[in-house]
Design brief:
There is one protein chain. The protein contains one helix and twelve strands, in the order ββββββαββββββ. The protein is mainly beta. The strands form two sheets. Strands 1-2-7-8-9-6 form a six-stranded antiparallel sheet, with no helix packed on it. β10 and β11 form a beta hairpin. The model has no long low-confidence stretch (mean pLDDT 91).
Length: 137
């Protein structure tokens, strides 16, 4: 059964994805041709959400950029980190704030850079140049 309380809220410059207090249940990190990619699963028994990020920035809890994400991810996991908030800016930027990390994903000029989907059949895809394709909002 879907968690109908978790709706997307639209503001003037961004959408708020209602992922507050959800834990990351699984992450899959990989690199292709030097590009960092990650699949992040959030969820509990009532609600699941997945981000697929192609190229992103990762920061620690005090805002320091993690420069070697591959090395960092081999020694540290995002699993069980808790979402504080997640915003999709209307220019295509994605910001995920966690208790211990911050993730930023920017649009690419020529291809899709990230996507989001959840168990309420909401989907957001960042297309080339930051154009957003949305379903179920």
């Amino acid at each position: 059964m879907a968690d109908t309380i978790r709706k997307v809220i639209e503001y003037e410059t961004y959408y708020s994805l209602q992922l507050e207090e959800l834990k990351i249940s699984k992450t899959l990190f990989y690199q292709v041709s030097g590009v960092n990619m990650v699949v992040i699963h959030f969820g509990n028994e009532k609600y699941q959400a997945v981000f697929r990020l192609e190229g992103f920035e990762l920061y620690d809890s005090i805002g320091n950029a993690i420069t070697d994400i591959g090395l960092y991810m081999s020694d540290n996991s995002l699993d069980n980190d808790v979402c504080v908030n997640a915003k999709v800016y209307k220019n295509g930027m994605l910001e995920i704030n966690l208790n211990k990390h911050k993730i930023l994903a920017y649009p690419y000029p020529d291809y899709e850079s990230w996507s989001f989907g959840d168990s309420n059949d909401i989907k957001v895809i960042c297309l080339a140049r930051g154009e957003l394709m949305t379903f179920g909002i």
